[in-house]
Amino acid sequence: MKNTDKLIDIYRDKLDLQIAHFELIEHEDAMVAPVYKILKESGEQFILKICTNRKHYLREQIFLNYFFGQILVPKIIDFIDPENNIPGAILMEYINGSVMKITDFNATIAHQSGVILAKIHNNRTNGYGELIESSKLDSNPVQSFTLKFEEGLGECIGHLPNQLIEQVKSYFYQNINLLSLVDGPCIVHYDFRPGNIIVQNNKVLAIIDWSSSRSSFAEEDFCSFEHVEWLIDSNTKKEFLEGYASVRPIPNYSKVMPLLRISKAITSIGFIIKQGIFNNNRNRWYQLNLKFLKAFF
């Protein structure tokens, strides 16, 4: 707590928010970065996102700036670059809405979300990989996709049964050639789900959390919905796809989706293990992905 208080004091000074009130935002979908709601004496409200990972900070800043005015994203007001032991932080406008819950994901919201996702994917790129390191983009999606999978798999070794690890690895490399059919390269959000959509009065107000975004293929963003949301409530799938199709053709993702879901399950479990924090939300997400892998194999 003391270290957190010291950081907040630093951000207060650097952002000229000495007498503002900082309130930590907690919700069931929170996974990584601390996010604060800031209230100034004038009544103005802002959001401060603290990015403990430098790449997360760079991605967040790049994509919020790039998409502002194109799609619904918060406007950056100010920022603090990471230095020494001080994490980077982004001060952005406060969106007067709430984080969408799966129960909010009705036909109207689904259609709007599909339209926005299609607009994101319409931004084509010159290769696959990190846009914060654009000189290292690859013309083939296999390398960047495999690197992320292997990183997650490495974190799982010693935690998941060896037999399951081998089954996952075998399936992955037997089917990696399916990536030759994907729709890319383009910008992907990579974590496009209800927990990263702000809504109010049956309307999408903003897409948040761009810290995982990159240049990849459109099918990756469909994986989040196929992996969780549509399995819980499939009634909105038709509306979502119709919204997407009103902007651009829907990628034919059915063949590659099992590979994407396996990779997502492994990278998600690996991330949670690496973070070493098993709160209620992370434990639920860990168990959901483990259950999927055991059922698949």
TrEMBL record:
Q: Which UniProt keywords apply?
A: Kinase, Transferase
Endoplasmic reticulum recorded as keyword: no
Please, which domain of life does this record's source organism belong to?
Answer: Bacteria
Where would I find the Aminoglycoside phosphotransferase domain in this sequence?
34-244
Which is an annotated GO molecular function term of this record? Answer: kinase activity
Q: Which InterPro entries match?
A: AGP_Transferase (IPR051678), Aminoglycoside_PTrfase (IPR002575), Kinase-like_dom_sf (IPR011009)
Matching PANTHER family: AMINOGLYCOSIDE PHOSPHOTRANSFERASE-RELATED-RELATED
- Protein name as annotated: Homoserine kinase type II
